[in-house]
Amino acid sequence: MIDTHAHLQGLDGGPESAIAEAGAAGVERIVCVGDSPELAEQAIGLARAHPGIAATAGLHPHRAELWNDGVCARLDELIADPSVVAVGECGLDYYRERAGREAQARAFAGQVELAERHGKPLVIHTREAAEDTLAVLRSTAAAVVLHCFSVPEHLDEVVQRGWYASFAGNVTYPSAAELAEAARRVPAELLLLETDCPYLSPVPYRGKPNRPRYVLETLRFVAALRGVAPEALAAVVETNAARVFALP
Fold first, then answer.
1. Which domain holds residue 74?
2. How far is CA 51 from CA 72, 159, 230, in A?
């Protein structure tokens, strides 16, 4: 099994213990997100040290005010690293708005250009900004992974455009009926699963810091929704992740 989106750098006990416990549970591959140049460098270091780890490099919309030519150039260098399999997470967040919308738009557009230049997929964060986010994505040729899928009302377009829907632990919450229905309906070839750890722990770990191994709870939940065996769904997710992230 693979956890396609994890913030290993911020986990209690450090990334090494989380990687070891995940492997022991059967989660042998993890995509470690580097959503700032500094965190991307750490993700690359983990990927070089562990064959089951891959990295991303980008700038989170919360940090969009930092975007400038220097940050762009540094990310350009990092994205070229063979350990880096995607650009992001990047996108728009109008819920917390820790950066102004104009700054977010500039950083997002710049990272779309980087993804196109390097031929790597975009890992997208969007919160309360679906229309503006999708408007940008409609004009890119880059592959798209909608991390922590949050736009079930746009599922038909997502499927039509061949974008990947990645579901985190919040799909297991009783209040997330629309997300669960999207996880049931999305075509198998566009389905990914993630933890977004240390955030969004699935039931029965809700309220505790998330860990990569908890992706197995999300796997079991979504498999039940779709009426398939967890082992079969794990194989599908592995295949999809290998395709979009060009994993070996």
1. 2-245
2. 28, 31, 24
Instruction: For residue 220, give the CATH number of its domain.
Output: 3.20.20.140
Compute the Cα dihedral for 145, 147, 152, 153 and give only its sign. negative
pLDDT digits (tens, 9 = 90+) for 29-87: 999 999 999 999 999 999 999 999 999 999 999 999 999 999 999 999 999 999 999 99
* Neighbour-count burial of 175, counting CB atoms closer than 10 A to its CB (0-12 exposed, 13-18 middle, 19+ buried): exposed
Nearest C-alpha neighbor of 208 from the set 34, 3, 12, 29:
12
On whether the CB atoms of residues 210 and 169 are closer than 8 A, the answer is yes
Determine how many CB atoms are found less than 10 A away from the CB of residue 20: 13
Task: Tell the residue number behind the tokens 């997502």, with chain if given.
Answer: 158
CA distance 247 to 158: 23
For the full predicted model, state whether its pTM sits above 0.85.
yes
Number of structural domains the chain divides into: 1
- For 79, 202, 236, the CA distances from 75, given in Å and listed in that order, are 6, 32, 31
Tokens of 208: 């505790």
Nearest to 185, CA basis, from 159, 160, 213: 159
Estimate the crossing angle of helix 69-79 against helix 37-49, to 10 degrees: 10
For residue 76, give the nearest of 120, 46, 126 by alpha carbon.
Answer: 120
Sign of CA dihedral 118, 119, 123, 126: positive
